[in-house]
Amino acid sequence: MHSHFTDCGLPGVSQIPYGVHMCNFYKTRDELVAALVPFFAAGLRSRERCIWISAEPLPAVEALAELEKAGFDARGEIERGALVVRDFSDWYAEAGNLKGNDVVNLWLAEEARALADGYSGLRITGNVTFLRPEDWPLFMEYEALVTQAFAGRRIVTLCTYWLEQCGASEVMDVLHRHNGALERPDEGWQVLT
Questions:
Q1: Rounded to the nearest 5°, which phi and psi values hold at 154?
Q2: How many CB atoms lie within 10 A of CB 103?
Q3: Are 5 and 15 in contact (CB under 8 A)?
Q4: Which end of the chain is more exposed for a tag (fewer CB within 10 A), N or C?
Q5: How many CA atoms lie within 13 A of 8 on its CB side?
Q6: DSSP 3-state assignment of 74?
Q7: CB distance 124 to 156 below 8 Å
């Protein structure tokens, strides 16, 4: 019997429920690293399959280097199938024609595959600096679908948004389509719902 909770990995936020779809707004590359490296380190320690779809300012090769600096054999985890780190452009080349429910179904299939392979769940992140303004409404529809579809699943998700690309309206859009936001007002983290 698996727990309904998993380690978030961020100081100040211990356990998060499976099925949660969170967001984080960051200003700098270092802030992005400070959120995602501990998030994935916790997933690897919890025997979850981890999928990191990266984009600027932290492309896949640099994301792997940051995990290795944190003491993980990232390439070994990839070889074992526990970790996938791909640049958005590579992932999009394969999934680019998929829309909304199709992408959600892709993630649900990844969850089923992870569980069948003996993992305790699936951990996902995507950094969305690739979004163009004209893509925003469709992507927000997708984010709402993710929140609905992942509820009660053995999936935890953290979507990261570069604050410089978001005005007040975009921040509200994102907050309304996620279960909560991770924020780091000082040295600790907190979840805003």
A1: -95, 55
A2: 16
A3: yes
A4: N
A5: 23
A6: helix
A7: yes
Amino acid residing at 167: G
Q: Tokens at residue 9, please? A: 């990995």
pLDDT at 98 over 70: no
Phi, psi angles (nearest 5°) of residue 186: -150, -135
In this predicted structure, what is the pLDDT of residue 95?
55
Nearest one of 58, 57, 63, 56 to 78, comparing CA atoms = 63
Cα(86)–Cα(88) distance, rounded to whole angstroms? 6
Asked if omega into 17 is within 30° of 0 (cis), the reply is no
* Contact yes or no for 101/141 (Cβ under 8 A): no
**Quick check: helix, strand or coil at residue 175?**
helix
Q: What residue has token string 């719902």?
A: 193
Q: Domains in the chain and their CATH numbers?
A: 5-192 (3.40.50.300)
Instruction: Give me the count of residues in the chain.
Output: 193
Q: Which two tokens stand for residue 159?
A: 């979507």
d(CA 143, CA 137): 10
Buried b (16+ CB within 10 A) or exposed e, 148-179: ebbeebbbbbbbbbbeeebeeebeebbeebbb
